[in-house]
């Protein structure tokens, strides 16, 4: 183990397993006064403060955030479009019209590398302000937009997955690639970026309607060549979209089968939304090790529906599920606000998402969906030191409400229901303090 070069102290929440698979008691770990020590960007020590303090090198400064803080693993976002940052909160349309009216014209601007770089900076700063240390990011069809995102993520030392959108039909000409150019550009980006430091490449066919079967096959073939990459796309988000896919691919059993047929259902596949998947499709997801990114703020904003997370996680055939902001159809960079909306989506399905399950999604659950739960998403020696420090009394009403909470579960539920970026006090990336909220608000 590396020698610690820094340490922080305060209440800590982390997970040792999946509360959907066993119990919350067996998988949620809360220490009311803990120390997390860091060396070489990884956690070297974690445990009760009185037990860890004597193990630390003499003179190591321990930064104490105090009893009103909560230290957790950095949050993860399994589905987000960085080029849509300039068009978050665009009025009045459901998915297909929203894409045509707002999304495609905005993404056109990313042919300009300087513009892409400026947005990448705003985007990643906003992630850090919200405690997000890892995301799975859609760029645009332009390879330079991928360079822009990775260059900034590398500068910040973040563990990020991203990829060039593949799209060769049913979009404006100015955004189309071809099967061959999409393959060539993606392959060149993989050589340049995949596994460089903490960066990871995601092969990114936008969704079935904007790729020919030939382009989807080519994405599957590229993935065969680089099987440890990600593959991200959208599935069964909107009922008109599902009907459109039926028309475009009449020979396939259903929407997911379009992807499965092109060998795109595997471990490290991240499918956005999946609201309207059938039982057979959920079985296919389970069997192939594919994951769903649950994006509740987006689903409500576009009127797409409300994803049933307990159904997806049914222990008979559990599907990996991560949480996603899906900006700019998503309406917030805040993972806390996203958990708030996930709770409401569960309510509409007649189920109650507990705070423990919600915070699992924000951290280890999404890391597991992305097959990086051995690296990030929980706090333990050897894990990469991506950490967020929450202020549990970040607004007057939260401060007031917190005096009435009786246990950590209630406290967490208040945070996810009322909290937002103001609750994020500090964000550490690989042990380095990369964001600290200024106290003068
Ligand atoms: N489906 C295809 N592209 C998109 C997109 O950019 N956002 C959302 N929410 N759904 C999509
Ligand atoms: Zn999306």
TrEMBL record:
Pathway(s) of this molecule: Purine metabolism; guanine degradation; xanthine from guanine: step 1/1
Record's signal peptide: none
Assigned keywords, A-Z: Hydrolase, Metal-binding, Zinc
CDD domains given in the database record: GDEase
Free-text comment on the cofactor: Binds 1 zinc ion per subunit.
Protein family per UniProt: Belongs to the metallo-dependent hydrolases superfamily. ATZ/TRZ family.
Role summary: Catalyzes the hydrolytic deamination of guanine, producing xanthine and ammonia.
Stated name of the protein: Guanine deaminase
Taxonomic lineage: Bacteria, Pseudomonadati, Pseudomonadota, Gammaproteobacteria, Cellvibrionales
Gene: guaD
